[in-house]
Amino acid sequence: MMDARVYPELCRPLRAVPLLTNVLARYDATHARELALYRSWLAVALAEANEPEQAADVAHQVITASADMTSDRTAERCRVVLRRLLDHDDVPEVRALLSEHGHLVTERESLGR
Q1: CA angle, corner 104, sides to 95 and 18, nearest 5?
Q2: Residue 60 in contact with residue 19, Cβ under 8 Å?
Q3: 71-85: pLDDT as tens digits
Q4: Beta strands in the chain (DSSP E)
């Protein structure tokens, strides 16, 4: 998992995608918080690998799963993912996601946090 998280930081997102996909395929669904976090890293890696449609799909899963959680970390990861997708707002899937959930980014930032 650590390798997968580091690759996007090193501008090597394509190396992260299969690692994250493999981990997520084997991960126990009862660990919802961890799944949401891991999916957030996958969404960022996909966005950075110029796969915004897939990134938007995974981001939607993250946001949906995080909605019922009281985790500051997952909430922040949702904002990170949405911010990363802003560069792809010309893609219909991303535009739809930002239209529905973009307030999560601007709400927090307008509060000065």
Answers
A1: 65
A2: no
A3: 899 999 999 999 999
A4: none
